[in-house]
Amino acid sequence: MKAFFQARLKKHQKRILRYMKYVLNDHFVLMMTFLLGGIGFYYSNWLKTLSPGYSLGGLLVLVIWIVSLHMGRFVSLAQPADQIFLLPKEKQMRSYLSAAFSYSCIFPFVVILLILAFTMPLVVVSTGNSFATFFFYLLSLWGLKISHLEIQRMSIFQDMKKAKKNAYFLWIIFTLIILTISIWFQPILATMISAIQIILFHKLCWQSMNVALDWEEMINEEQDRLHRIYQFINLFTDVPEIATKMKRRKYLDPLLARISFSQDNTYLYLYARRVLRGNEYSGLYLRLVILGGVLLYFVAEQWFALGIGVLFIYLIGFQLLPLYQQFQYVPLTKLYPVKKEQKLLAMQKLLFLLLIFCAVVFAVISWFSLSDWSEGLIATFAYLLMVLFFVKFYLPYRLKKMDH
Q1: Which keywords does the record carry (predicted)?
Q2: What is the pLDDT of residues 261-304, one digit of tens each?
Q3: How far is CA 173 from each of CA 36, 178, 179, 190, rounded to the nearest angstrom?
Q4: C-alpha pair distances (Å), 103 with each of 56, 98, 107, 147, 354
């Protein structure tokens, strides 16, 4: 069964890697490089302003580490047909799940390593510990994550909901104790306790594997995990594996009613309706506007605020470009007596409204965060200029390439 898992894993990785070339495009890499570089710059400057023994630093690190421990889920790669075709092999599924557990540790271990490396300077400033304690922190966090994954694996067996809740509550207590000892007392002692809790949770969760598998729960958990991955990939390219969910959202009907009922607004109405009622684009738009606004609120340097605002306006517009092809394979749109150029005009109108609203939000926040009114005025002008450039020049260029 381990070989069966490896074969399934290889197929899964091949499918994900095929999508990664669309995710890791030049625009995304440029945006992440700029964003991470800016965050690192301000983070290092902020650390220089802190005095040794900064009291709130430890609490901030504690919260960040607890959040990082919840990143990464148990990967079973279970498929809907498994509850029929693999049911005779249920006793052999223990080795399959062991291989799945080992693979499930890779991603969260890497994430924890990166987050720990990022927060380590703050730990040193706040606690006075040396950078040599990094490895003790890392082992403690990895040990806690192993137990967290053990609890997730336990949940795919029958009648384990209550046991999972109790185990998770116990895990939270161990997490708070271990991380508190690590940050404020003795990292080596915390690592030893972390090793003990690994053994405890392994024995506790291993007992659950004597009962039958909850095939439906295992499949649902895996489908939910994959859905989250495909949702992210779907921001960059079409993913056949994901089904788009639509919501009525009657309270947004007045916005659609503002579009006049005429042949010239056919695609404008379709695109606007798709944005307002689909989770994909509306959720993406709101998340990026909120994220950009939060970053701008904490930025007091003029040129960095200008760069963040312009970058997020571009990023929002770029991520909405796939909307152009949403109705490409709908037969009825081929029968509409409308010109093809109307699609471009509709996209320009819709993106202009969305990006202008975003620019106004960013401008208002910049006026509060920047120290001088002239700096806010320059930032506002730059945001509006970026909207015009994107809608009038960049959008037609990108859509022309998409048509070819």
Answers
A1: Membrane, Transmembrane, Transmembrane helix
A2: 766 667 777 777 777 776 667 777 888 888 888 878 777 677 77
A3: 33, 9, 10, 13
A4: 36, 9, 8, 15, 42
Q: 3-class DSSP state for residue 323?
A: helix
Contacts of 100 (CB under 8 A, 6+ apart): 5, 74, 75, 76, 77, 153
The first and second tokens of residue 394, run together, are: 């960049």
CA pair distance 40, 43, nearest whole angstrom = 5
For residue 391, how many C-alpha atoms fall within 13 Å in the half-sphere facing its CB? 19
Pinpoint the alpha helices (H) of 159-301. 161-184, 187-208, 215-233, 253-257, 266-277, 279-297
Q: What are phi and psi of 280, to 5 degrees?
A: -60, -55
The position carrying tokens 């047909």 is 81
DSSP code per residue over 80-107: TTHHHHSGGGGGGHHHHHHHHHHHHTHH
Q: Is the pLDDT of residue 246 over 60?
A: no
pTM over 0.85: no
The number of CA neighbours under 13 Å toward the Cβ of 110 is: 5
Q: What is the DSSP string of 64-76?
A: HHHHHHT------
Q: Where are the beta strands (DSSP E) in 94-161?
A: none
pLDDT of 114 higher than 60:
yes
Give the pLDDT band of residue 143 (cuts 50, 70, 90). Answer: very high
Q: Return d(Cα 204, Cα 199) in angstroms, integer.
A: 9
Task: Evaluate the CA torsion angle 274, 276, 282, 285 in order and state its sign.
Answer: positive
CA trace torsion 280, 285, 287, 293 (10° rounding): 180
How far apart are alpha carbons 243 and 34 in whole angstroms? 33
Cα–Cα–Cα angle for 288, 292, 293, rounded to 5 degrees: 115
1-29 per-position pLDDT tens digit: 778 888 888 888 888 888 777 776 666 67
Residue 166 DSSP code: H
User: Are 139 and 194 spatial neighbours (Cβ–Cβ below 8 Å)?
Assistant: yes
Degrees, nearest 5: CA angle 24-25-27: 120
**What are the structure tokens assigned to 362, written together?**
């960013």
Dihedral in degrees, nearest 10, Cα atoms 229, 232, 235, 239: 0
